[in-house]
Each structure stands twice: as C-alpha cells, then as structure tokens.
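Input/output pair, single chain:
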Amino acid sequence: MIDPAISLSAIRHRHGEWRTLEDLVDRGLATEQEITTLSGGGLTRYSVIEFPVRELFAECAGDSLTAVGVDPAIVDAVVFFSSTFSSYDDHDDLIDLCWTMGLIHALPIGLFEAQCSNFSYALMVATSLIHGQGMRTVLLLGADSLDESRARRLLPAAGSVFSDTVVSCVVSTEIDSGYAIESVGHVVDPMLATLDPEKDIIKFIDLFATRLAQLCAETYARTDLHSEDFSHFVLANLIVPVLRNYAAVAGISFSRVPTENIARFGHCFAHDQLITLATLDKTGAMTQGQRALAIGIGANHLFSSTVLRKL
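Output:
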C-alpha cells in the first residue's frame, strides 16, 4: 500500500469547442443508430480542440500549482501522459513548458502505453519517484486531441465518443488536501490484444471479465478493503450499460458510480477518472475519510485500480 502521506490534489482541466452528438452525423463520423446508442447511454456532447493542444498546457498546469501554492521552481518532475502523443514535434512540448513556467529543476517524463488508463501509469510513476528517488512534488499533465484523419471519434460499438482534453494535477508529500493515494495496481493480459472483440466475442468477454475481476480481487487483498468500503466507484465516461457491467464484475453497487460527467464531458481519453475526482471534491460529494476506487482500462488489455481516500 502506498504511503497515505502522498496526496493527489488540484486537479484542473481544459477543453475545446463543445459540439453536440448530431455534429458527428453531420460530418459523416457516425450513423443515426450510433447516436441513438450514445444518447441512450447518457452522452450529449464532446470537445474538439482545433488549435495546437500545447497552447493550453501552461494555463492548466499553472492553475494546479497556484491552487495549492506550489512554486514551480520546487517541482521535482513533470509526468506527461497521452494516448495521442505521436508526432515528432510534440516531443518538444514538455521541455518548452518547463522553461516557460519556470520548472527549472523538473525532470520531464512521458507516458503513453496504457492509453485510456494512462492516468494510472502517471500516478504509479509519480508515487514511485517520491518513494524511490526522494522527490517531494510531481506535476502531472495529460493531453489528448484526436486526429480524425487517423482515428475515429467513436469507440467500437458506440461505447462512447472521444473528447479532446488537457488535465493537470499535483502529487506531493507537502500537501494535505484532495486525496491520499493509498494504492495503484495493474493487471495486463497481452492475449486480449490479439482477440477481435467481434469475431472472438465469447472468448474476449470471458477473458476481459476474468482479468477485471482479478484486478479487483488483488486490490481488495492488497489493501485489506472490501467492495463495501468504497463510497464511489470511479470509471471512464462510457455508456451506462457498459459501466453497469463493470460494477457487477467488481461487486460494487451501480448506485456508487458517478455518472453526471458522462453527459458533461464525453470520454476524455485517460482523463475521465481524474476529472470525476475533481468533481466529487468540488461538489463535496465525498467526505473526509471516504474512499474511492478508480478503475481504468487501456486498449482492452491493461486494467488498473487506484484507491484514494478523501483528505
């Protein structure tokens, strides 16, 4: 279990132009039937960032640091995570941010392999840097802006719609607000990456559910907690039927799954869970001492669990 003295706080996020789901049909990116499925699952809109996403980095990250009174000069590392981090000129963005914001001692680190669970990779790396490298404050910065010429806005089977987003937060031993990070764990099954969810549907569903159940069982055992110990079960902004299935596998009542952000934000890549935690914090929906279990799933073969306690 991670030392509860490590906190996750000051989660901030930025988005682009908000568009209705009907825009997808107008642009030939979705069918009417897919929109019906998305709408029935709780989705209403999505974000499109039409300018270089790097233009939002300093504002978002600066907001996080200011919120907790952290001087950029004392930040030990900046962990950047992204599913769409792929073009060569993007590699300069992180070091440019460090220079622009005065993060003069921060080690720049980039993560991408976990895709829609990249936030869990970032939290794992941040806590490991604190424990193993003696660091005290790590800034997390996530950004995704879909290139529609290379990838589709809709998830398979109209499970959700990708929404361009920038998010930032602070992981530190120096801050006593937000959430204590008590555990971060992962389960990976490369075989799932070789299966076609449609052609191998039975085998895929069985193995997917098995690994998700394994993740939850290992999390409960590692933390000495049980499903009933979590006041909130934080998931990605997918359509409600999918989330109901996840809750059933985890043995947690669906009534504990926050769903309000599905309509507000769409599926913000690996940023949904952090944004939901920010919403719970802002609205006071979680009280001191309550725990949340955040589950992330990357590319259908990597499963992550993060246990957080409200400070």
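The mean pLDDT is 94. The CA atoms of residues 25 and 116 lie 25 Å apart.
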